Amino acid sequence: MRAQFVLSEIGVGLRRNLTMTFAVVVSVALSLALFGGSLLMSDQVTTMKGYWYDKVNVSIFLCNKSDAESDAHCAKGAVTDDQKAQIKSDLGKMSVVEKVVYESQDEAYKHYKEQFGDSPLASSLTPDQMQESYRIKLKDPEKYQVIATAFDGRDGVQSVQDQKGILDNLFGLLNGMNWAARAVMALMLVVALMLIVNTVRVSAFSRRRETGIMRLVGASGFYIQAPFIMEAAVAGLIGGTVACGFLVVARYFIIDHGLDLSHKLNLINFIGWDAVLTKLPLILATSLLMPALAAFFALRKYLKV
To answer: For residue range 1-17, what is the model confidence (pLDDT) as tens digits?
Structure first.
């Protein structure tokens, strides 16, 4: 089989069905851009989990005088020095605990003023209304329930709170958005496959005289199918290249420059360029193989060779 013949047939087919070829390129580009975006979103969520879960604390809030009057958990009164000492001693004996930091009422008041100094409520608060607490760093953030079981409901303890629960809601939202993107991506892939099949069939129908002659002179099935398969592969590869361009530009514009989220949201550990670059070969391979296989199976039935 002469390469020159195959290449010339590819050019003829692409030009003859220019509109449908353009539709294939666009649909493949959009679907694979969403595919790559969903993979990067998964990496981003994983990176954020590793970054934030390593920093979350479990907080044991202790009863103060105000809580003793209004909170059923503190019905026995404000926490005593003996109760605080016992809580700290028990925390020190637990294997899941990595570090314990005590926060006094004055320190809690100072931190509140730093974070919410502009709030109307800040001016009416006094240090004695704030809660003392133990901030506990766990060796494994998943072991929160061990702390909750041991201290929740104990005398002098108002509540046990896990910061990981707040983050779980955020990551649940991000994962939901990621699955929505995957659903749209799957729909776009179906549309792209249908366009590829139709484009190949139109191309084969427009050249049915040539393929009929080739069958009569004994040309092999692969020799006849090769130009059509490669047309689809080339169109898909163009779409895959565009999708890669979308991802690179999006990473550059959204995180590094333009929106510049890496500086504006410096509390978020964004994925690096290595995560983007490792996805590009997969997208290009998919853009090449997916149309080629779709065209191969479509032609087997249509050309009956």
So the answer is: 455 555 565 666 566 66
